[in-house]
Structure formats: structure tokens, C-alpha cells
Amino acid sequence: MALRSTGSVSSQLAVLRQKFLDRARGDIKNLQALAKKMRNGEISADGLIYCYQSLHRLSGSAGTFGLPELGEAAKILEKQLKVQAEGLDDAPDTTGQRVGVPEGLADGIDTLSELLEVKSQGIESEHFYDEGSPAFKGSQGIQVSILLVDTGSQSLAILAQEMASYGFLFRRLNGGDPKSLGNEFRETQGAAVILCRDSALSDVISARSQSLTKNTLRQMPVICLGGDDSFQNRYRVARGGALAFFPEPVDIPELAQRIESLAIELSANVQGRVLIVEDDVELAEHYCLVLQSAGIETQSLSDPLYLISHLSAFEPDIVLMDVQVGGYSGVTLARLIRFEPRWLSLPIIYLSSEDDRDNQLDALSKGADEFLMKPVSYDYLIRSVCIRCYRARQLSELMNRDSLTGLLKHSLIKQEVERELARCRRNGHRSCVVMLDLDHFKVVNDTWGHSQGDIVIRTLANLLRNRLRETDMIGRYGGEEFLVVLPQCSVSAATDLIQGISESFSELSFVSGEGRFNVTLSAGIAAINDFIGGDDALEAADQALYQRKRNGRNGVTVHYRR
User: Fold this and answer.
1) According to the model, what pLDDT value does residue 166 have?
2) What are the catalytic residues?
3) Do 198 and 218 share a domain, yes or no?
4) Residue 164: which pLDDT band, with cuts at 50, 70 and 90?
């Protein structure tokens, strides 16, 4: 992951490092007091458990803050106490009970102070980096640019005109000048896909390579068009670096869908939410800063008593958790999380200094998904979390999205209506709900076939994604019916928006072996704020839709509350 340096985050990390040093001095002072009691045979079970927890925290955090030798020394002492401390922790009542300790433990504790003071002189934090290039934010509500490499092909010019109806932003680039082409690629911002003929592929790939900078996170995907649909040509195109190939004549809806999916799949910045469960406050804040710098939203929790409420409120994509969080076992907490069916698929990653492979496997078998060893480098932490967030989002997409369109399923889009109504009441803004239905869709299926019908449905889904805002929510309500929630949108604005989409959709031509055909849509709009419940708003939008059907279809009707 190519990143750039940032002073502000580095200074914040320096402050955290100083806080750690101050706290570590205090913790080691307390441990030395316990060491004195150990030598006198006065250490209690509570004291030993406290000693174990302090050593565990120190072994996990010291390396992160530039003191790996201190961390290793603390880990050795922690291992000496592990079995005994965990046994005492599980005992019914050990308050005040005197216990023995391993030989040499007290002397080992005394060496921690020396390691801290000697090794902390002039320590430098790991050079910190931050995201330096623009990022895709998702498929909905972004302007996807298509960089059309023009080599004089008339077919590409016609294609550009047809694709513009889908809401893509086209830029025609001169394919005859590699240097100029590379400069254009370098200056491109946001979500972009390169479209070229297969004969120009090598020049395009070369120009793209020359345009890469140290801040480039991902290469723009290349889609090729060509008249040769043979295996040999497809193999040549794939080897050349293209991610898709479309034989001519091009299936426009299929091309639009592929461009859309590439913009999602090759998103430069994986947007995700991470909950960090860590009793070491400075260390948790450190991880938060690192992940936030990469565009990942984070929350930290030091007290597991509030774990379930945090999960419900934050709805993270993954959980980062130590195997020991204060007096609580991370393994047990992972099992507790799995009590709730909604969290069965939530990825849980242990971030711990535990290096025993058997213990790691045992912990993983009881509810977690992965182990990251402390200390972990910034780059490795960011990469690991981004990959997990991306996979978690993919799984969520499979579970919550309609397989044909990629839109929210029926039950989930209905929930969004209720949620938006609650937000309207809380914030006082106005929002709308829209029901859309394809006109005479049975005729489309009967005349042109169900596969063409699927293309029509998918095309409308792509058009909606490209024309609506990132905050708008779109779902497939059933069959050829769609549901859209427009937050903070007046009825008049919603009417203009949906009418524009209706007109654009009616202009799209669908190609079949039998010829070309067009499809129109009807829509009904209702103001969510006008109703007590979400179901009432849905019913009103549905009534407006059927009024539109009765009045000739191909347009928009608004439900006005009497």
C-alpha cells in the first residue's frame, strides 16, 4: 500500500508514546512493589492476577511504542504466570489467599525498569503514513468516469453516445500520443475505467504504467473491445492486462454493468468500520489513529461490559480484540458475541502477543477468525484490516443484496423506510419514498425472452445507482418493482430527479436477435414525513404508482395527503 507521510498523525502518535512511557513507569513501579512482596512470601492471589494482567498489557504494547526488548522481557515473565493466574482467576473466591510464585520472577520484574529507561532514550516511532490518492467510495452516488482511448474508431464514438445515457462521464483521450495519454491517466481523479480497442491495449498499458506514482493505490482497470472473439485473441488481451473483453457489436447493458462492478471491486479505499476491544487505552488509541488514517472508521472499547451495546450501535465490519481484556478472556468474549445470531458471521481478529501456536489454534476454534501478533507494523495492520473489511462487505453483499441487481433485498429496503422516518422525526428534515415499476414487463419477457428481461432489470438498477446520491437507498422490491428512499429530499426535487431518470431510461435501446426495443417505467412518490409509519408511506407511494399506471404509464405521480 503506497502512502504518504503526514506530520499531524505522527505528532499525535508521539503524544501517545509519551503517555505510554509515563504509564509504563507507573506500572513497573507497582510491579516492583509486588516483587518485594514475592520475596517476603506475602503476595496474594489478587496481587498475582494483577501482576499477570500488567505484564500481559506491557508485553502487548511495548513493541508498538518502540520498545521490543521490554515487550519480550515482559512476555517471558507473563508466560511464567499464565497457567497459575488463569487458574486463580477461574477459582470461586481467592481474595486474600497467599500464593507462591515461580523462582526468578521477582528478579525479572526488577530488570523491566532498566530496560524501559535504557531503551526509551531517543526512540523513534515507526515512520507513519497516510492515504495519498483519491478513493472510490462505492458504486452508489459517485460519478464513474470512462476514459475512452480514441484511435479514430467510429464505433467507439457511437458507443460513447449510447453509454452517456447511463450516467457515466466520458472523456475522449488521444491514443496516438503515449506521453499525453500517461499524463491524462495521472491527473484522473476518482472512479475511472479505461476503455479501448484491443489493438491499442499495449500502448494503453504502457501509458498507464508510466502514469503510476508512489501515491497510486490501485491501477485503473482496462476494458477492451474488439471484433475478434476467438480464444487466442481473448488470451492475448488477458495476458496484456485487460480485466474484461467485449466482442463487437457490444452489449451495452452488459458493458455498463461490468464498468459498475469494476468501480466497486477495484475501489482504492475500502471503507469499513472496526471495533477495537483493548483495555490498554493508549494502545487502542494508537490503533485507531493508524486505521483512521487509511480511511477506516474506528471505535475503541476498554470495558467489555458494554461490548454488546457497542456492537449494536456501531455495527462494525470486524472486531479487533486482545485474548485478554483486563480481567476478561477474549476467547470467552468471542463466544459471547456469537450468542447473537446477527453476529455469527462477524469477523473477530485477535490482536495479541500470544505466540504459542497451540493456544492460538485453540482460541481460533472458539469463535475467532485470525491472529495478528503484537507488535504489528502499521502497513501490515492496515492491509490486514482492509482485506478483512472488504471480504466482510462482500459477504454482507451476498447475504443482503439481490443477486441479479446487487440492490438491497425486499426486507432490508423496507427497513430503510422505517429508519428514515425515525431520522426525519429526530432531525426535522423531509424525505421521500419512491416506488418504480417497469411498464408492460410481461410483454418484454413473452416477446424477447426472460434473459432479455433480466438485462432490462439490471440496466435500470445500474442507471439508478449512477444517477442517485450516495446517501440514497435502492432496493429491488420484487420482480420488476424497485423501491428508493431519498433522505433530505423534497417532493418537488424527488419528482424532478425521478422524471429525469424515467426519460433517460425510455431512451435506452435493448438489442435482441429479433431486433431493438425500448422499455418505460412508472413511478409513485410519497413524502415519508406525512405518515405515522413506514408501511403507510409505502402504501401511499404504491397508490401513486398505480394511479400513474392508470393514467398512461411512463412518468411520475405524487401522492398528496389530503
Assistant:
1) 66
2) 480
3) yes
4) low
